[in-house]
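User: Can you fold this complex?
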Amino acid sequence: MSGLTLKGLRKAYGAAQVIKGVDLEILPEEFVVFVGPSGCGKSTLLRMIAGLESISGGDLFIGGRRVNDVDASQRGIAMVFQSYALYPHMTVRENMGFALKFAGASKTEITAKVDAAAAILGLGALMDRKPRDLSGGQRQRVAIGRAIVREPQVFLFDEPLSNLDAELRVHMRIEIARLHQDLKATIIYVTHDQIEAMTLADKIVVLREGRVEQTGSPLKLYDDPDNIFVAGFIGSPKMNFLSARVQGGRLVLPELADQSLPLPALQQALPEGAQVTLGLRPDVFKRGGSASLSLTIEIVEQLGGETFAYARVGGSAQIMTIAVEDGRALRPGQALVASFDPARALLFDTDGQRLR
Amino acid sequence: MKNPLALIGSLLAQAALWIAAFISVFPFYWMIVGATNTANDITSGKASFGTHLVENTTKFFTTIDAPRVFGNSFLVSILGTILTLAVTSLAGYGFEIFRSRTRDQIFAGLLLLLSIPFAALIVPLFMMFSRAGLMNTYAGIMLPGIAAIFMIFYFRQNTKSFPHELRDAALLDGLKEWQIFLYIYIPVMRSTYAAAMIIVFMTSWNAYLWPLMVVQTNEMKTITLQLASLASAYTPDYGLIMIANVLATLPTVLVFFLLQRRFVEGMLGSVK
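Assistant: Here's the predicted assembly.
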């Protein structure tokens, strides 16, 4: 398995810059997930790696070889598409063996490789069916099988689970994770679903408007985001953001009736009167701590295992999401003192950059 | 009891439909009946089956060089259909799959050409073809129809339902563009091709005006030209004309019934 190196990769359609210089190192056998809102360029970047979109600038190396001008089929990659892209007029077996047949492999070799891939994915009984006779999950497995047969250096997945229903999505997610362990493959996976990103990735790449916002392990991005965008994008339910003012060594929260909190410990000193944004994940309230906010519950969501309370202060517009340990007795209208450890609060400057 | 007004309305609608059906079906009926009657029976208005089918058929095969005219018609229709489908489907694929800044302008220009009646093109086409030495040749009969703009439009519209990801997958599988067209596009779009085949085959089988211009000898005559010359004889033999019409209609009927199911699929959009 090979790694990839992206150096200043750019893509422009006429005057419109879609990918604005992406630098990225992907290690062999690493599972990398590109996430970002729609239109952030994650699929375009994947298609550039695949060779389906031309590269306007920068360099792309796969396994140390510069492949900017190498044909898609010669890059040692295989791709699984959102719509599966199975050839409708061919059987499962023909679909899976098609690339090998075109590469001039012998019949026995094709049969052996296709059967091996089919065994990994449990496709044995479906080999003579056409794609139209398969369910969505089966089609996606065939698409993955077609990729495995090619024994690529790198697997590319373009939102592969988006067309499946919720239950099947969870099932296929586990299957893809297992496949990664078994094949020891380098995988680049595009999704807008951050649960897929968090659960599958060794490394998440958060993209916005054609730029990399941050790369890192899922927990690194969750615990230590570089900016307000990453903080808000990673994690569900979303992080709470409150505007705050530094005053007398404390943080004053005008949106919560000027309640104040102790200032989290930072390496830099914040000047008196500085405007900042306070970020609090809903789950920091689960464990309690020395800081607290007094709120009134508006809506309670009982998920069985956990409880989320949506609460605010008086008539303020700012509504907070609070994860509550043992919250089964909570009712709308009740007062809630949400306490947390101030060390777990994140601060961002007015440009949205993290203050450390 | 039913509302009497609704009953009258429904009866009127029924009557109108019956009249319309009669108007469309009667000529076929008369053609078939006419093939079994003599010219005198037909001109006197006889509309029931007669006993002269064998006589008319024999006359057809003795007075007309049937293998020649049918051979000519089959040759220009089959070859013309294959060439037309090849050219127009490639064009439709290209227009839909490849992006370029001028693509839509060129396509709009092509559609604009559709509004020019063929009759207006006959004189320039005639001069072009005679200078190119293509008069009285099979190529001369077929060529003007091959880049049929309507069929390009038809293929482009249908290509919109061809999933681009199939092309991406094929590129990754190592296919060149022409291989994608041949091994993926054509099989996936076969219903579209079947519908197009019926339309194009019928059009070239029934073509009259242009072959009339190009064809100058009896050896090159197609069946439609032969029918016309039968009808323009000094004393037209209607029994002969009718049997000739029946025989000339058979191939198109056959093609339609063979491809009927695909024709409907193709017209509804081919990729599921």
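The mean pLDDT of chain A is 91. The interface with chain B takes residues 47, 50-52, 71-74, 77-79, 81-83, 85-89, 98-99, 102-103, 132 of chain A (CB under 8 Å).
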